Amino acid sequence: MKTPGSDLADLPIHELAPRIAAGEVSPRELVSACLARIEAADARLHAFVEVYREEALLAAEAAERAIRAGARLGALHGIPIGLKDLLEMEGRVTTFGSSTRAGQRSTVTAAAVERLRAAGMIALGKTHMVEFAMGGWGTNPSMGTPWNPWDANVHRVPGGSSSGSAVAVAAGLVPAAIGSDTGGSVRIPSSFCGLVGLKVTAGRIPNHGVLALSETLDTLGPMTRSVEDAALIFHALNGPDPRDAATQDAARLDPIPGLRRGVRGLRLAMMPVSDLEGLQPEVATLYRRAVETLAGLGAHVEEVPPPFDFAGMQRHAGVIIASEGYEALGAFVEDQSLALDPAVRKRLIAGKDFSAADYVAARKHMRAARAQIAEALDDFDALLTPTTPISAIPVAEVDEGALPHSRFTRAANYLGLCGLAVPAGLTPAGLPASLQIIGKPFAEAKVLRIGWAYEQAVAPLPRLDRAAWFAS
User: I need a labelling partner for 327 at 20 to 30 A (CA). Which of 170, 275, 312, 447 fits?
Assistant: First the structure.
């Protein structure tokens, strides 16, 4: 069976952009291809909460006319994108992953959405997520759990909380999507779904108009099929915004000029073998292979014990996330008449049990830990870890009380670092594994450069058998 929507929907942005500029591909043709894919497969994949079909087609026509008139805005002009359903758009419903918010329309538009529109991107719709962004497996019993497209026979976790964004991009429904990352919510689903996911330094991309879980740790980031695509979207999003005080020190950064500089001479820290205990063996093998690849490209790789305990970082970050999450959402979780995900309610209501002293102590520890990691990474360009210690498991096997997926991701948020998830190959079961490249604060250009060099040196993941989705 021929896959609906034409092969255009499979192409990365950096290949589509020059074809659109040359008039070989029209934005309307591309948007129509994505809409055909969504119509054919999303009933089962469950990536989108809402699709803006008519508006997207009108925006594509406008983009096409502008480009023909010589008013092309750049590489993203005419490219469709999916938006995690915590990004507000004036007049649109923003559910925050909760059925209790159905019908609540936003009165503002997120700064990130404004910037994507200014770059010429076309919002295709809102994507599903874990309720209130409070979970890493990607499950959502009330609004539905998106289906990881790497296994058409078994419903496996997509990773969360940016579950729908990951599934939409991995399944070829849209070239890219925006997620958010408080403890790994861009990188975990990118790992499970075989994508590139960029976690930026807090304050790099404005959070104005983004429904908050943790004011301290929340960040937005792109989820794409290539490192270059992530760099293009990051370039459009980053920079100060007067409506978000956290961005005041975030100078605008263009990572593209240095993207292809390679890694020769860079110093990269890798985890000791002892810290890899408990990893799924196939994931550990692919991690070591990824590190060897970077060493083969001329990077100086050194085994360095991290100056912190990953499990400890998980716990300390959890205090901040739960405390700030309860402050923001306590009225929802305390209202027993609301049908919330029991696991999410339990995680958020735990924030009530932390005292002001607990919260202040966690913040004090965070400041000390950030100073410590800055000193430890002073001689290195990045730290290499697996993104997740396991590949995607069946939804039926999820233990909502266990957090193995965030073992290596939460630390970056807590320590104020940036990080990039890059596909590192498939396990024997045909499921993606991922390399995480953790960089210093505001070093997004460096982690993207390392990720790009790695990506060019390895075979891309095989194309998904999307026919299995469209035939069912």
Answer: 312
444-457 and 227-237 are packed helices; what angle lies between their axes, rounded to 10 degrees? 160
Among 217, 200, 195, smallest CA distance to 133 is for 217
Q: What tens digit of pLDDT does each residue of 193-217 get?
A: 999 999 999 999 999 999 999 999 9
Query: Hey, how many other C-beta atoms are within 10 angstroms of the C-beta on 117?
Result: 17
- Name the band, by pLDDT with cuts 50, 70 and 90, for residue 239: very high
Catalytic option among 32, 84, 199, 323: 84
99 is catalytic: no
- Average pLDDT over all residues of the chain: 95
Q: Which of 26, 180, 185, 214 is catalytic?
A: 185
Give the predicted TM-score (pTM) of the model: 0.97
What distances in angstroms separate CA 38 from CA 28, 246, 267, one per listed residue? Answer: 15, 36, 43
Asked if 119 contacts 76 with a C-beta cutoff of 8 angstroms, the reply is yes
Domains, the chain, with CATH or none:
14-309+367-471 (3.90.1300.10), 310-365 (no CATH)
Ranges assigned E (strand) in 15-121 = 48-51, 80-84
* Angle, alpha carbons 342-345-346 (nearest 5°): 85
